[in-house]
Amino acid sequence: MSSHRVKGELLIPLLQVVTDLAVIEISFLLCYWLRFYSPLTATVPVLKGFPPFGVYLISSWFVMVVWVIIFRALHMYGARRNASRVDELYRVAGGVSLGMLVVLTGAFFYRGFSYSRLVFVLIWATSIVLLGVSRVALIHYERHLHGRGRRLLKAAIVGSGKWGEQLFKSVDRRPGSGYQFVGHVGGSAFLHDRLPSLGELGDLARIAGEGQIWTFFLAPDDAELPELSSILNECSGLNVDFYLVPNLLEIMTSRVRVEDLEGIPVLKVKDAAMTGWSHIFKRAFDVCFSSIALLLLWPVFIVISLAVLMGSRGTVFYRQERIGMDGREFKVLKFRTMSMDAESKTGPVWAVEGDPRVSRVGRVLRKTSLDETPQLWNVLRGDMSLVGPRPERQYFVERFRASIPKYLERHRVKSGMTGWAQVHGLRGNAPIEERTRFDLYYVENWSLMLDIRILLMTVWAVLKGENSY
Predict the structure, then answer these.
(1) Total structural domains in the chain?
(2) DSSP readout, 106-150?
């Protein structure tokens, strides 16, 4: 492996370890002061005396070692290319919580000293906050370096598959992604006009062996698959990274796993999206969240309703037939943002930026996504979920199902107010192929924690307001 790459991969992990150690120590000392010497003691008085500072200081060293080991086991030390802020906060919260369980277990069995339980609670909370802030700051620093062309991994795209082209476009739009495409291998006409050609597929082993390119993204078309399989065998022993970029609209491999059937290994490539308790947990979460949100937002709804009525003639709410889970129709509820009968002349069309049919109040509602909030009632009724693929009208469903493979797989789960595609900026008139790819990923990889992660990412997406029209 190139020594330049090794050095380039050391900076961020080193900074992560150093900042983690510093933050954990700061959290420990801060919480000791909060519990025993801060104004908090007026609310929660110290009843069992003031413990020696040295005991807590030595304990902090033990905690630092334990947490760093746990963070390492959770793969939290390394370049954070493409890591989102929510992802990082989620990993920090999980790592700190697991580390605290280990520390509490050790404190329980150690009888030489009695530690304050409130201190442990304070350490847990402050560590999540401070570590989260430091980790997000490091992500921004790493992206800053990448945006300036530093610490980039040299990469190449291999093959003529269309998803290689899509990958190039996505990375090209995000200069902070951490990869620098220096060429392509194979016969892609699209990439030939944008990247230097490094050779044909048969040259892959030679190119990889030169050690100048560290990452190869394999995006073959159907005709190249047999040849690429044999060529990869020639690359055995080479210390480079290979990533496969499959066409997720034609083969769903996001949850492929090996199972044993009477001694014969079989690959399971598709599973039921949700069964049994999964349905119950998701529905319970939807009901609790939507109920609380509706109770808290009713004053906001009144203000918006008055604004809509004053902005243009017509009703406050807009109801429209959409297609949800299992192809069932339901009426989605939104605040009206257009003039009445806006589609009487145009027919069903997607909203576009600067649409003249949208009222002035409607533009504000769409920019802030407040026009979608009445769908909390759809969630409470069970028509929709908080998280899931966005529902479409029958007209568009029929159009897309004929041109996009596996488009109807989106209907295996309830439609959502927000979704995996939306938090990745695929709103408005974003390409339906890309939106479908993200929707299918969600269907195949659903979990309650993924829903929570998407909801947190939605807050950031709404604040940014991109493609909200």
Answers:
(1) 3
(2) HHHH--S----HHHHHHHHHHHHHHHHHHHHHHHHHHHHHHHTT-
Same-domain pairing of 123 and 182: no
Residue 370 lies in a domain: yes
Tell me: do 116 and 15 sit in the same domain. yes
Per-residue pLDDT of the chain (469 residues; tens, 9 = 90+): 444 454 556 777 888 889 989 998 888 888 888 877 777 777 767 666 667 777 778 778 888 888 888 888 887 887 666 667 777 888 888 888 888 888 777 666 655 555 667 777 888 889 899 998 998 888 888 888 877 777 777 888 888 877 788 788 877 777 677 788 888 888 777 777 788 888 888 888 888 888 788 888 888 887 777 777 777 777 766 777 888 776 544 544 445 655 554 455 555 555 656 666 778 888 999 999 999 999 999 999 999 999 988 888 888 888 889 998 878 899 999 998 887 776 666 666 666 666 777 888 888 888 888 889 999 999 999 999 999 999 888 888 888 888 787 788 888 889 999 998 888 877 766 778 888 888 888 888 888 888 888 998 888 778 776 656 5
- Quote the CA–CA distance of 312 and 339 in Å, as a whole number: 7
The answer to whether the beta carbons of residues 443 and 410 sit under 8 Å apart is yes
User: Any idea what the Cα angle at residue 430 is, between residues 86 and 446, rounded to 5°?
Assistant: 45
User: Do 12 and 83 reside in the same domain of the chain?
Assistant: yes
Q: Please give the DSSP secondary-structure letter assigned to residue 179.
A: E
What's the rounded Cα separation, in Å, for the pair 162 and 384? 33
Do 39 and 143 lie in one domain? The reply is yes
Asked if 202 contacts 231 with a C-beta cutoff of 8 angstroms, the reply is yes
CA distance 401 to 326: 14
Two tokens, residue 29: 């000392």
Taking residue 403's Cβ as centre, other Cβ atoms within 10 Å add up to 9
Structural domain contains residue 110: yes
Final residue of a domain: which of 131, 147, 163? 147
Q: Which domain holds residue 64?
A: 3-147
pTM: 0.58
Q: What's the rounded Cα separation, in Å, for the pair 195 and 157?
A: 9
93 occurs within a structural domain: yes
Question: What is d(CA 327, CA 406) in angstroms, rounded to the nearest whole number?
Answer: 14
| Same domain assignment for residues 39 and 121 | yes
Instruction: List the CATH number of the domain containing 220.
Output: 3.40.50.720
| Final residue in a domain of this structure, among 229, 247, 265 | 247
Please tell me what DSSP assigns to residue 416: E
Residue 267 included in any domain: no
467 sits in the region (left: phi over 0; alpha: psi -120 to 50; else beta) called left
Q: Do 173 and 208 fall within a single domain?
A: yes
